[in-house]
Structures are given as C-alpha cells and as structure tokens.
Design goal:
Length: 220
Amino acid sequence: MVRSGRRPGKQGTREAILDAAREAFAERGYDGASIRLIAAGAGVDPALVHHYFGTKHQLFLDAMQAPFDPMQVLPQVLAAGPDGVGERLVRTMMRVFDSGAGGAVAGLFRSAVGNELIARMLREFFTRQIMRRVIKDLKLDPEEGPIRTNLVFSQVAGLVMARYIIKVEPLASAPPDAVAALIGPTIQRYLTGPLPPHAASPQDPHDHGVGDAKTRRSWT
C-alpha cells in the first residue's frame, strides 16, 4: 500500500479525513474534490489535511489504498512515444503487481465489485491517475480518450481477474514479459489503432473520465 510518509497523529482525525476524501473523490471526481471541501467534510482545517498527506495526489492514493503511484512508473512507459507503448504498459504493470502489489490490486477489484464508492474510486484512479496522463503524453485525440480509456481498462480488469483473482493457468504464473508480449498488442490497438466511425463513450454521471464532456460524441 502507498503510505503518506507523514509522522503519525491522532488516528481518528486521519481516518475522518480519509473518509471525507473517499466520499468527495467518488462523488465529485479528482478534479472537483478540493482540499478545502475535503477538510470541511472531515471538520478540520485544510492545513491539517496538508500536514497529514502533503498533496491532494497523495491523499487520493492513501484514500483508496492504491497499490502503486502511477506518477512513479508512467514516465518510463511513455518516454519512448506511442510505438510499442501497449507492451511497455503491460510489462510495467505486471512487474509492479508481481513485486508485491498483486494482492492489493486483487483486493481492490474484489471490493469494487460490491461497493459502489470503491468502484467509483477505482474508475477515477484508472481514468485520471493513469489514462489521462497516457492520452496527454502520447498526444492522442482527446475526443477519443474516453472510449480508448474504457477499452484499455476492460483488458486490464480482465487480466487482473484472470491472473490474480481466479488465477487461471498458465496465465497466472506466466512471466511478465510473456504476458506483455501476448496482451500488449491489444492494448496498443486500443490506444492507437483506428476506431469505428462515430465511436466515443457517453458520459457516465459518476465517471469523471478523460476528455471534456462537451467534445464527446454519442454512439450511433
């Protein structure tokens, strides 16, 4: 689990801030949940939120008990540009998961199935903390960002389910490089391949995804 690195304080106050943060992030999304709003929900001064967690980014990671910080691993994935990014993304994720985060990832997905608040947080984590950075750095069409994000997430969620939850063999024990070679081309197609005409994702009222809602087209 990601830890804040701050010295411990009153546990009740810290937990109140985390509870308020989970509700705010789930309801308003990462961009709409301000530190001031979260502090008000917890009944504390905004300075106390910064004291415990430092930044909103770190508070978000702690609130959802994120298994890794995307900002620490994405630069190496995106630095080489769009060619081969699908395989690099899968390989990096597998190495992070297999280094010890796999159990946490599986637990997060299990919780999301039966808890709408956690499900929203998981969507926010993937769309805002991971895929928004991918879409921006690769200079992909922001209008196509939502559907491309959803397609990538469908593949990642299936991989997590098969490898870490159901543990289907031989996928469950396959080396990360082998998994990347098999699944990477599909992720690559979802990210940079041509889309059918007029393909874009409709706005989910609970999902603050990649791209501006005004630019999104409807399925036709």
